[in-house]
Amino acid sequence: MFAHMRIARPVTDLELACRMYCEALELRKIADFTDHDGFSGVMVGHHSVPWHIEFTLCHHHPVKPAATAEDLLVLYYPDADEWAARCEAMRKAGFVEVISFNPYWDVSGKSWQDNDGYRVVLQNRAWVTD
């Protein structure tokens, strides 16, 4: 089984994406690179989770972000106070609250969209598997 997961997304503004996700989700910049074979990027994560997000910018052939309403990063916050605090942090960081394309996500959560159209769902429930 793999030991770590990276979610890679092209963005239009590296600094803005880094700031928004770090402020809203209590992440921090864990790595970055500049003009590596025509790409620059920044990675954000948290020491307590086995995943991170990489934002990239192509300098020679710009890649336009092409997120859809169902391309979601879903995060679970079972504690109601922590969930409410994260929702407020999302708003303050510049995310816009949106109605989910799939109404399931609005039952126990809220959906947020960043400046590139990527969506983050904050669920106020625990992740439980069978």
What features would you describe in this structure?
With 130 residues, the chain is of the alpha/beta class. It folds into two domains: 54 residues, 2,3-Dihydroxybiphenyl 1,2-Dioxygenase, domain 1, CATH 3.10.180; 52 residues, 2,3-Dihydroxybiphenyl 1,2-Dioxygenase, domain 1, CATH 3.10.180. Helix content is 23%, strand content 37%. A hairpin with a 5-residue loop joins strand 3 and strand 4. Helix 1 packs antiparallel against helix 2. The longest helix is centred in the middle third of the chain and has 14 residues. The mean pLDDT is 96. Pfam families: YycE-like_C (PF22659), YycE-like_N (PF22658). It comes from Kosakonia quasisacchari.
Please give the structural blueprint.
Layout: E1 5-10, H1 14-25, E2 28-36, E3 39-45, E4 51-58, E5 72-76, H2 80-93, E6 96-98, H3 104-107, E7 109-113, E8 119-123
Parallel strand pairs: 1-4, 5-8
Antiparallel strand pairs: 2-3, 3-4, 6-7, 7-8
Q: What global shape is seen?
A: globular
Alpha carbon gap, first and last residue:
19 Å
Count the beta strands: 8
Reading off the top of the CATH hierarchy, the class of the largest domain is best stated as Alpha Beta
Strand content: 35-45%
Number of domains: 2
Largest beta sheet: strand ordering: 1-4-3-2
Radius of gyration: 15 Å
CATH architecture tag of the largest domain? Roll
Low-confidence stretches: none
Helix-and-strand structural type:
alpha/beta
CATH topology of the largest domain: 2,3-Dihydroxybiphenyl 1,2-Dioxygenase, domain 1
Residue share in helix: 10-25%
Output the number of helix runs.
3
Q: CATH superfamily membership of the largest domain, which one? A: 2,3-Dihydroxybiphenyl 1,2-Dioxygenase, domain 1
Order of helices and strands: EHEEEEHEHEE
